[in-house]
Write a structure and sequence with these properties.
This protein has 294 residues and is of the alpha/beta class. Helices cover 31% and strands 20% of the residues. The protein binds adenosine-5'-triphosphate. Adenosine-5'-triphosphate binds next to helix 1. This is Dipeptide/oligopeptide/nickel ABC transporter ATP-binding protein.
Length: 294
């Protein structure tokens, strides 16, 4: 299966910085899977998300979309990419333009992709609002008329109105209160289940990670250069509301060092017999990489 998104030996550095924020990153996201990026603050999770979204350019390595290097100047590919990969940000207060009606906000991707039909974007906007549990007349209202959870639903409606294949989410529920958080997690889980949406999510909240993601990439600052490298582990698919003991379960930490991971989930009956994921994908020292790199 060709990964829908892939980072191959990628490094990134912000302008003016003396060192890479992330380096030696290999990460492949298969269609339909859900991957969480977790790690300490400043490890580079948002930076990886920005690379996957084409908002930042790698200083080394390649970002691939459907197996092809992402070329920002390749209009046709970028159009396909923009339609296929959408995102939801952390703060539903700053991510919605307060001067525009909800209908106009949700229709924005349709306009920018030229997907609003002759009948206008209204039918698609109504359907997107309905999917996230908001009434169609919400389209006439303004963001300030909605509280945080409903604002995040609006942001999710905007991200899903053009029926993307991949949703990238940066701390999508961390700005919400606990009760609202559960509802938005349920909504994301339903989108994943019913639409086969691929999800890549940054989160500090392990209960949210456990509820939504099958794989976890742990970013650790490592080595004297203070670079961050991702370590990916597989976890059994949890229920949407994991029991409390699961919420406290530690994430697997794999051997520090440079390696890449493209774990394929074994069939359920094989899972018990198979060696742990890290035993198959990492090696002592600098670890292993696909294609024979080491
Ligand atoms: N626009 C920027 N310019 C310069 N440095 C930046 C910029 N954005 C992030 N950084 C730096 O890059 C490093 C990684 O930041 P990033 O936001 O990717 O980490 P993170 O793991 O998402 O952190 P957090 O969990 O706190 O959001 C940090 O040291 C941060 O200060």
């Amino acid at each position: 299966m060709t990964p829908v998104l892939e980072l191959a030996d990628v490094a990134a550095r912000y302008r003016g910085a003396r060192a890479d924020v992330v380096s030696d990153v290999f990460l492949a996201v298969d269609p339909g899977e859900s991957l969480a990026l977790v790690g300490e603050s400043g490890a580079g999770k948002t930076t990886l998300l920005r690379l996957l979204l084409g908002l930042a350019r790698p200083t080394a390595g390649t970002v691939r979309f459907d197996g092809e290097p992402l070329a920002l100047r390749h209009g046709q590919q970028m159009r396909r990419f923009r339609r296929s990969v959408q995102c939801v940000f952390q703060d539903p207060y700053s991510s919605l333009d307060p001067r525009r009606r909800i209908g106009s906000i949700v229709a924005e991707p349709l306009r920018s992709l030229g997907l609003d039909t002759r009948a206008g974007a209204a039918p698609k906007v109504s359907a997107a609002l309905e999917t996230v549990g908001l009434p169609a007349d919400a389209a006439e209202r303004y963001p300030h008329e909605f509280a945080g959870g409903r604002r995040q639903r609006i942001a999710i409606a905007r991200a899903t109105v053009c029926e993307p294949r991949v949703l990238l989410a940066d701390e999508p529920v961390s700005a919400l209160d606990v009760t609202t958080r559960v509802k938005v997690v349920d909504l994301l889980a339903a989108l994943k289940r019913e639409r086969g949406l691929t999800l890549v999510m940054v989160s500090h909240d392990l209960s949210v990670v456990a509820a939504l993601c099958e794989r976890t990439a742990v970013l650790e600052r490592g080595g004297s250069s203070n670079r961050a490298t991702p370590h990916v582990s597989s976890a059994p698919r949890p229920s949407v509301h994991p029991p409390p003991d699961r919420q406290r379960a530690p994430l697997a930490r794999l051997t520090p060092g440079r390696f890449s991971v493209r774990p394929r989930r074994p069939a359920r009956q094989e899972a018990a017999a198979a060696p742990p994921e890290h035993a198959r994908t990492s090696a002592p020292g600098r670890g292993t990489t696909p294609g024979g790199r080491s």
